[in-house]
Structures are given as structure tokens and as C-alpha cells.
Amino acid sequence: MSILNNTLKIILSFLFISLMSFSIIRLIPGDPVTNIIGERGASEERIQEVRKNLGLDKSVFEQYAIFTKNALVGDFGESIVTKQPVWNDFKVLWPATFELSILAILWSSIAGLALGVLAASKRNSFWDYGAVSLSTIGFAMPLFWWGLLVIFFFAVTLGWFPVSGRISVEFDVPYRTGLFLIDSLLSGQFAAFFSALKHMALPAFVLGTVSLALIVRVTRSSFIDIQKEDYIRTARAKGLQPSQILFKHIFKNALPQILTALGLAFGQLLTGAIMTETLFSWPGLGRWIVKSIEARDYPAVQAGLFYSMVVIVLINFVTDEMIKVVNPKMRDNVKL
Amino acid sequence: MMKNKSFVIGLCLFLFFCAMALLAAFWTPYSYQEVFEGASLLKPSARFLLGTDDLGRDLLSRLMVGAQLSLGIGVLVGGFAVIVGASLGIISAYYGKKLDEFLVQIMNGIQALPSLLLALFVVAILGGGIFNTILSVTLVSIPVMFRLVRSSAMVEMSKDYIVAARAVGASDYRIIKSHLFPNCITPILVQSAVCCSEAILNTAALGFLGLGIPAPYPEWGTMLSDSKNFIETAPQLMTIPGLCLLLLILSTQLISDGLRDQLDPKLRGRS
User: Fold this and answer.
1) What residues are paired with B58 via a beta bridge?
2) Is the ipTM of this complex over 0.90?
3) What mean pLDDT comes out for the span A66-80?
4) How many CB atoms lie within 10 A of CB A257?
5) Verdict on whether the full-model pTM lies above 0.90
6) Left, alpha or beta for B170 (phi > 0: left; psi -120 to 50: alpha)?
């Protein structure tokens, strides 16, 4: 029942996503054909050709059916700017964003968990106040200003890290996965690996800050709540080691909330990636979306909208399933 | 109320920016558009208290007018979110059934994308400009308000006093106006402050990406984006507008936290 339900949900979301990205090109003021070939120098033949290429000679329903069918296999037509299938651009760009996001979520969840636990176990200490102010300021911090500050301090003043790009130009890493960190190791170029890591350090640091604030806050408050529970008192009374209580009792019970926060953090990464990638000229999806919007490259915008929605639906789905794994109460077959 | 530290700090900061915006309506050191020949990228001095930008415009004047923009948009969007989001939420909870399902589906649809991304796409469709920026930022702030108000209105709906009001023969309008709305005022107030801060942040983010409020308006996000190339020569162009932005957003968040702690004792002390 639960699988059926979830499949239905995914199909519904897919239909909704495709409808949204289908309508976007039709909501733009003006004729899409003129948008593509420009006002002047359009012969009647050319107009008909473009019209046919876009499938505009068919009825709206047919158009939608074709669009959905193509979208299912990731085909959104050619980008107006690069004259390449949008899928090709996407294929090259996504590893850059993926690599960056993974690194960001990794450091922020490790640091966030550690700080959150520390703050909760030493309430009203320096660490606690530090964690609370960090998460308060982190929530209010405009990511792009934070990025500028980080660039100013670490790249301009100290000169420790490069400001833009993915790797130094002198390295030529053979393409395998598209993830530079992995490709460079696979080809045995350790210098290239460190160069890629160095380029990634600042953007990943900035990108992870938003998630850090969220994870610290959720970890701290859920740990504090659980510490007040009766079963923790029982465990203490039994004489269990504090570390045992921390990991076996508190952590296990806080996990669902922390996972929810992680899912949220992943969703935020997408927004964060737009800012971070624009700021650091990182050749990834976020910068691509902004550039496509600026260039009025509608097939690319459509694809960007579609892909980001798919990613978000997937993240939500995975988070839900993971929470069910760690929290038996959330499973569908349990009657409370 | 005044014993709540975060609320007081937030309010003071917020009032500071209000004063700044108000003052800018009557007086700024120079016009925010006035270009001084040969005075570009100056360090802070007696003539230009915060220095000048790359075109030779006074930073302080631009900052003050920028406060008007950010605050104005924040308050406006907070207000819109209350008017549209909160009323839809209450109506949805009150009438229930088909209307409720329909509204919830629409809000789910709007929320399918993170707010900034959606605002970006809306601006992509409609084009930039002040009006479209406000429209897109408002649109993304409505669903959260809707959800919160709807869920707390639904709790109220199940209580006896609503049944009693019905039994006395009160009209729908009367129940909504004098029973549901006053009892949902806490989430509405708290969330309107959150909407305000989100709106300020999203507007600045759109401006930073070059898709928001166009030049020559001194929007803080746009100013930050312009300052990128002068980080080394004139860091104050980057640090000061950013700090203002952070403090303004922080103030609205502190106010909303304080309001929540104060108005909803159940949540007190849960940060």
C-alpha cells in the first residue's frame, strides 16, 4: 500500500513538474518563435521551420503529451545559446554541482552534529552560547555577503585559496565520472586532486554554512528535549556510561529529527548553489540556471526548472524513506 | 514583553533602520544618484562619511535610500502575506472539503521549489523591475503563512466555542472575524515577521544575481553585487551594505522569535 501510494505521489509530482515547465515557455510575453529567432530577418520559411521544430503546429494537448514524453528521457531540445541539446550541457555541469554539494553537506553535518551535541550536553556554557549565536546569525546571514567576506579574507587578504574555477589550468584530468576529485585520483594525479580540493574549499565552506546553522539548531534542541525524557533518567539511574547514553539512547531518538533537517538542508543547497556558484564562477547547474535566465534561453530554463524539481522530489522521497527506517513510529503499518 | 531580550534587541535594530529610512525620505547627505567627478572609490572622509562607490556616488546616501527599499518591500510583503496567505488559510480551514483540498494542492505546487528558485523563475517569466520583484517575492511567501494559519485554525475549529457560536446562530463571517481570526493571531504575527525577513533576503538575492530591482535604485543586494570587483581597493563598499542587510534580517528574525516566545508560552525556551 505504501509503495503504491508513494508511486502515485511521484507520478503526480512528475505530472505537476512537467506541466509547470511546459507552461513556462507559454507564459512568456510574446511569441516563442520571435523570442528565438528575433524580430528581424525572419523569412516566412524560417518561421514555419522553427514553429515546426518547437512543435507549435500541433494542438496544446498534443504538445503537452510530446513534451512530457521527451521530458521523461530528459530531452528538452536545443539550447538557444550553445546550440547544443540541453541534456549535453546538463551532463557536463551536474557533476560540478554534485561534488560541491556533497562536500558542503559533509562538513556541515559533521561540524553541525558535533557542535549541537556539545552545546546540548554543556548547557549555558561557552559552547552552548556559541552554538546558539552561530545558528541565529547563520539563519539571518545573506549567503552572497558571507561568500564575499570569505573571499575577501581567505582569497584576497591571505591569498590561501583561488577565487574561481574548478582546477588549475595546467592539469588535464581525463573525463570519467566528471567529478574532479575522483577523476584525478583514478588517473593517479595527486597534484591535480589537491588543486581541485583547493578550488573547492571556499565554495564548499560557504555553501555548507546555511546547512550548518540548521543542523546545529535542530541537533541542539532535539538533544535537549530528549535529555528530559524519563527513559534517559532511567538509563542514568542504571549507571550507564554518559557516552553510552549519548549514542545509544539520545542519538538514536534524535535521528529522525536530524534526518529531517538534513533533507531540508539538501533542499536549501540548491538555492545556495545558485548563489555560491555565481559568486565563485563555479561551472555548475546553479550558475547555468542564472545565465540561462539572463540570456532568455528558454529551453535551458525549462530544463533547469524540471531538473531542480526532480531533484527536490527525489530528496523528499529519500528523506521520508530514511526516516521510516530509523523511526518505527513513522512506518505506515504501525497503528498508534 | 520588554523583558524578552531577543525581542528588545530585534526591535531596537529594526527601529534604527526605520529611522534611517524615514530620515532618507527628508534628508540624505547627497542625492543617491549624484555622481561626483574624480571622486570614485574614495575612503571614508569628512566629506563622504562612508566613502564613495566606483561611479563616485556617496555610499551613505545610497545606503539610506536602500534602507527605504528593503524595509518597504519587507513590510509590504509581510502585509500581503497576512492579507492573502492568512485569510486563505482561515477560509480553507473553515470551509474545508473541496475548497481546502484545492487550496492545499495549489500551495503544495508553489512550495515544490525552494523560495528563491521560484522567485527566480517568476522573474524570468515576467521580467525584472520593482513591481515584478515584489510580486515574485510575495508569491513565494504566501504558502508558508497559509499552512501555519490553516493548521492552527483547524485546531480552533474543533473547539467547543466554535460549536457554541454556530449554535447561537452566528454567521460564517462573524465566526471567522470574531472567533477564528483573533485566536489565530499568534502564528499570523510571528509568521508575518518571518515573511518580512524572507522578503528582504530574497529581494537582495535577486538583486545580487542582477535580476531584481534595476539600477539606478540603490538596492543593497545590487550594491553588493557591484562591489565584487572592488573588494581589494574599497572593501567598505562590500562590508557596510552587507552588514546592514544582515542586521536588518536578524532584527526581523529576533522580533519573530521574541513574539513567539511571548505569545505562545508552550514554546517558551525552545529556541
Assistant:
1) B52
2) no
3) 77
4) 18
5) no
6) beta
